[in-house]
Design goal:
By secondary structure, the chain is an alpha/beta fold. It has 10 helices and 8 strands. It has a 4-stranded parallel beta sheet with strand order 5-4-3-6, with helices on both faces. Strands 1-2 form a two-stranded antiparallel ribbon. It has a two-stranded parallel sheet with strand order 7-8.
Length: 244
């Protein structure tokens, strides 16, 4: 509060920016309906893990297992691939080039979505991303470009490439002036939470969500609140070395 009090211009700028940001979608039916046309994106299991629950000293513990979704072994399979599926539904994906930066799972979703709908994927990786991950991207038909030492530099390279080549920038992070695609991408994540709600035998007391740039955590939290109200405590977990 002291910062906002001492720098009213900054506070006004922040509030003006937030006013442009839409509340996360909770309409899971649209992505769910679209993804039913893709068998590889089918429902994933919710596992009851009693041994882990006992070790944690709780009654029950459930884990939503996304590893089989689209064959990616990734909890982010539904995001970027859903954006490309939406474009395909409108006749705008085939032959298009989607470019992004990634430090992990997001790039796989772009690559798989592009491969599934006849598009091309170009993924920018920082030099610190392991070559093994680059090889996984290539296995889904993506072109990998090394650019910069950190994710932010790779993202800047991807954005510039999109401008220079008239490619579609498909980032899972957003910024003023770039909101539509990340917003749609987050809508794809609603499907896994819709499934989890249907699979849970009773509302949970706690929900633990991963946060990279925050899109998956935000979408899942918003849907959880609509489904279960304020009762569950939602805990967002992210790495100390790379806080969003």
């Amino acid at each position: 509060m002291n910062v906002l009090h001492k720098t009213p211009d900054l506070a006004d700028a922040v509030l003006a920016t937030l006013a442009e940001i839409p509340f996360p979608s909770v309409d899971a039916d649209r992505p769910s309906t679209l993804l039913t046309r893709c068998p590889a994106a089918g429902v994933t299991p919710l596992h009851d893990v009693p041994a882990l629950a006992q070790a944690a000293g709780v009654g029950h513990l459930h884990i939503k297992d996304e590893r089989a979704r689209m064959g990616l072994g990734s909890f982010k399979a539904l995001g970027a691939a859903y954006v490309i599926a939406r474009d395909a539904e409108d006749g705008n994906a085939k032959g298009r080039t989607y470019v992004t930066a990634s430090a992990g799972n997001h790039g796989l979703s772009v690559a798989a979505g592009a491969q599934a709908f006849g598009a091309r994927a170009v993924v920018y990786l920082a030099d610190t991303v392991p070559e093994g991950f680059a090889d996984r991207l290539r296995s889904f038909g993506a072109e990998v470009v090394r650019h910069g030492a950190i994710y932010e530099e790779a993202m800047a390279g991807a954005a510039q490439a999109a401008t220079d080549n008239d490619w579609a920038l498909l980032s899972d992070s957003s910024w003023p002036g770039y909101l539509d695609r990340p917003y749609t991408l987050m809508e794809g994540y609603l499907v896994l939470m819709q499934e989890a709600v249907a699979q849970m035998p009773a509302p949970p007391t706690h929900i633990f969500l991963q946060a990279g740039v925050g899109g998956l955590a935000t979408a899942c939290a918003a849907y959880a609140r609509v489904s279960w109200g304020d009762a569950p405590r939602i805990v967002v977990v992210e790495p100390e070395a790379a806080p969003a």
